[in-house]
Design brief:
Length: 184
Amino acid sequence: MEANERFRGLLEPVYPQALGFARHLSRSRSEGDDLFQEALIRALTRIETLRDEAAFKPWLYRIVISVHRNRSRRAFWRRFLPLPDQVAADEPSVSGASFRASDWSPHAAESARRAREALASLPPDQREAIVLFEMEDWRVEEIADVHGVSASAIKSRLARGRVRLRAYYEKRFGTAPALTEELR
């Protein structure tokens, strides 16, 4: 089987979730699309290194995380990001049926915008842990494996991230919502 065909076959079932993951890590939908595209190019060039096809999803997510971290380290990149107020309020958070926004509404769009804004305020490692745990429904052990750290390190990142999100919401919006509901 040709590498492109193999890659396409492995990507097809996880495409919507992986794209949504990249978008949630990013400050805007377009930045998430760019992140995902860059990660796909990197993954395609390295598909021969994947020995176990059952491990494709964590392997791809590790690549998305790696590309995300590389982008986050580049200080100049932040100059090109849109300010949160410039993101369209009616922009849907992700495409794909796996995400919990069942029906679009003005309230859901505003919640999605606020969640993107709040997540963008977190350091990359906390943002990645929160998105994988709260939005992708990964177990702590799975996240630890992808990040190459212990489960307790992930639990700490989740706890610190939640504290930061709560403080961000209280400062920015005057109240802290049930974070898991707003993020979903």
